[in-house]
Specification:
heterodimer; A: about 500 residues; mainly alpha; B: two-stranded antiparallel ribbon; globular
Amino acid sequence: MTLSAWLPALIVLSSLVPGVAIFFLREESFVLRTLLNLFGALTKLLLVGVMIWGVFHERIFETRWTLAPGLDLVLHADALSVLFVTLSTVLWLVTTVYAIGYLENSPNRSRFFGFFSLCVTATVGLALAGNLLTFVIFYEMLTLATYPLVAHRGTPDSLRGARIYLAYTVAGGMLLLIGAVWLRTLAGPLEFAQGGILRDIPGLDPSTLGWIFFLLIAGLGVKAALVPLHGWLPQAMVAPAPVSALLHAVAVVKAGAFGIVRVVYDVYGVEYAESLGLLSVLGVVAAVTIIYGSVKALSQDYLKKRLAYSTVSQVAYIALGTTILGPLATIGGVVHLVHQGLMKITLFFAAGNYAETLGVHKVSDMDGVGRRMPRTTLAFSIGALGMIGVPPVAGFVTKWYLGLGAVEAGVGVWVLPVLVVSSLLNAAYFLPILYRAWFKEASKDYPPAEAMPGRGETSGALLWPPVVTAVLALAAGLFAAAPYSPLEWAELIAAREYRQ
Amino acid sequence: MNALLLMLAWLTPLALLPLMRAGFRSWLTPLAALPALAAALLIPPGTVVEVPWLLLGAQLGLDAGARAFLLFGSVLWLIAGLYAIFYLQRDKHAARFFRFFLLAMSGNFGLIVGQDLVSFYLGFGLMGLAAYGLVVHDGNETVRSAGRVYLVMTLIGELALFAGFLLLYERTGTLTPMPAQIAAGVGWVELALLLSAFGIKAGLIGVHFWLPLAHPAAPVPASAVLSGAMIKTALIGWMRYLPLGASSLPELSAFLILAGLATAVLAIPLGLGQRDPKVVLAYSSIGKMGLMIAGLGVAAADPVIAPAVIAAITFYAAHHGLAKGALFLGVGVVKARSGAWPLWILVLPALVLVGAPFTSGAVAKAMYKETLVAVPPMWDTLFGVVLPLTAVGTLLLMARFIYLMWRAAGSAHAMGDGAIFSWGALVVLSLGLSLLHGSAEFVLSDAVTTLVIIAMAWGVMVTRPRWLVLCVGRVPPGDVIEPFMSMARLFRGGDRNAAHREDSERVGKLELGLSEGVSLLVSRLQLAESALRRRGVSAVIWLSVIAVLFLGAVSWG
């Protein structure tokens, strides 16, 4: 067996093995648990590094395991999966550090980190999935691994939130499964291929394909929180901050968006889907979601809830980019997988810091937090400005390419106004927060910095993750044209997607 | 070397940001403008440096026009920064002020040296957003509502620019479009977006109302750079991205000339009706920008004369930037000192702005008039009527300003002597800019006009120009927006009634039922209407006057 056949499996195992091991650790073995966590995260990072290099040079990495004749479990690395795997791996490492700091001295840590690792395993697995069946398996695994994390605190509120989450995602998973099985019976093994596979299969009925597309997208749309399937997301904000961060930036919401990208590009093929007339419908749904999420975010006073609605809106950018024909829009949509992840995880880390350090949960209580926690608030500001689309933060690059793609495809007439209105709405719900944080006087006494360990604004494990991700979000925009930037990689994906 | 200097020009202010926490390092602020000044002086025009890894592939450089803007801009930022150290000596939020000051400075320099669309947009956006921090610095309710108006208009302008640049790139296929490519590629959508984006920044009449609110709201040194340097960036944008000098564009030319001259004329009565000297200055800035915009219109009419016209406008911008900066800085000094001498010094930049002989104002005016030789005949009479009108208008505005300053002298807290020296330096520069140009000949006819004008001004001063105000009526700062603002105040629950306040909180949280909401809306509208009758009548009148004039101009043009 060579490395190229084992690398994808190793990447999945690098979080699965430590995850399972952590379940058997005693609660107080802090050092061992931390070592296992970090060992897994760093190993994965190393392996992913090898994979990036290989995929860039068009090496093939594939692990294939035949369950039954015609039923293969396939892990395969292409440019798109590498993009998502890299994002998950980097952000997992950062979030692990954050979670260690956040959960200090709280109960059930072994259970938490166990499921946490399983959650990442599922995410990486579905990123590397080489056919629709493998994707569905990891997609369901993600649902189950995340449920205990949302419910982690065990309060009535979090149990309720977790139940709603489960109800939505299990139902979505069913739709996806039905769609996938239906398509499998019609079209064979459904191995993902750039440019799509259905176009080359003769004798498929377009209206049947339309129904299957509807089922698949509805199933994926639940996790991607497309309106009207988004109801669970604002409820799931009861989860602990590191879970929310991962949920919104990489794991669940992104898995849905990533799935939509996969189905449109590598199963149906974007041109074929367009010729079936499926994309314009999805495009309208995405546009409605973008505006609806932002409008709802305006009136939320709980910071995490406002951020949740913002996710609803921002993730739909990815779906929007997918539905517009042409490489530029593809770049805009795909690169937002990474950009939204970096910016949103920063915002959630910062929100967690306010809650954990100062006990601030509501926007209306955020007066003067900038002076008490300048670095956290600076990171928050960078994330928020990026969401609005202010250069040089990464969000600008997304908007630029989405806009260009839309104009190129001749749909600029309605896409540009959607982008502009969405930016205005983003400004309307983020800028007042920044004003409160930086300009208003604190309305009450915050716990002084001197009382913190290390006398910083908060503990180091909570402070550094948002700072690092904010710097990454800034760098992704500022050095967008540099080699190995997310933008460059998205251009590579688009070039390979439209090669035919 | 050139590349390094071009990078340092906009990176230095950013690099100093982390140092601005304990107030004592504020003395570094003016130094942040030095690399930009050095770049303007040392880098030969036409230098271009590619920075392929930055943003979407950046190109930095300086052409002759950008060099002039960078030169007077960096001087202004340097002097205003120096002044700010002393002005904010006792301000407990001084560090925050300097952070936003540096951010805005970096944005301003960045958009000048950044030659590609994305760098320009980055600089423009950074400057616009950071200036919000300067506008609301004082933190009281007036300043905050001015800040809100400023921010909304700035965001609208930036998004219009985003869409405009996006389309420009899509049509021309390059991030550094040349006028010929733009002329071949743009349609009316792109033009409209560019005109509105920069029109907001320039204070074009109709979207000018944020300016008389925001510029006076900011602390004095920030007002100086806002009025002196930042609104001029609109001119840079138009000079670069309108197809001037590539082809003749009669419609664009007509729009710019009409809108520019309307701005120049209307700013005068609006400014004369003000009580706050800084608001008078803000309206005067609007008027002067109007003249420069009309100049751009002349350039758009004829590609042959465009370079000469653009050079004249650039000099005009430099002259106005320095003089207006000196006037704003002077407001702070006069208010801090009780003696008469600061007021006398303040008269000097006012004379520069009026265009008195030997000053840069006279040269700027002469250059501007020279370009009008080539004005299309249809505009000849219009310019012939409007230009003398604006000259007299500027004079009246300055007379009103000096009068208001005379009454306000010594009314504010004292500040360090250093501020006076930096102010003095700027006054001297604004007087002496003409030497730089080397053409400060004494023209007799000019002298006679000026003498007449000064005599008139004296008359105005002596009679304590109450009558001026009586002629035009009191105008609230921000004229047309004022009725809307008082309405917004009422909706937000600015009235003292507790029940109303509760209602507005529920409106904010979208908790009201439909019928409840409608009845509340009706009662609020009634309140707003009665408030309008009390407060904003003159503003309504002005709104209709502007509308009528605009319609007339359009039908006539």
